[in-house]
Amino acid sequence: MSDNHLAALKDKHQNIDTKISAEENRPFPDDNKIYTLKKQKLSIKDEIQRFELTH
């Protein structure tokens, strides 16, 4: 189960990165949306690091 959880976190992290790139490449990117996505991405990255340290 732990491998599945880690894989899911990494998948979420990659999906958010894709969303950030898509938003940044729009003609009029929404800075608030980018900011929110980057915060989510950082939060998931922190969770991945905590998970890797404890397992």
Q: Would you write up a description of this structure?
A:
The structure is a single chain. This protein has 55 residues and is an all-alpha fold. The protein has one domain (2-54). 85% of the residues lie in helices and 0% in strands. The protein has two helices and no strands. The radius of gyration is 13 Å and the shape is elongated. The termini are close together.
SSE layout and pairings?
Blueprint: H1 2-24, H2 31-54
Helix pairs in contact: 1-2
Output the keywords:
single chain; mainly alpha; 55 residues; 2 helices; 85% helix
What's the short version?
With 55 residues, this protein is mainly alpha-helical. The chain contains two helices and no strands.
User: Which structural class fits the helix and strand makeup?
Assistant: mainly alpha
Helix fraction, binned, reads: over 70%
* E-strand count: 0
- Principal-axis shape equals elongated
Low-confidence stretches: none
Largest sheet: none
**Fraction in beta strands:** under 5%
As for the number of domains, it is: 1
| Number of H- or I-type helical stretches | 2
Mean pLDDT: 95
* Helix-strand topology string: HH
**Distance between the amino and carboxyl termini:** 11 Å
Radius of gyration over C-alpha positions, nearest whole angstrom: 13 Å
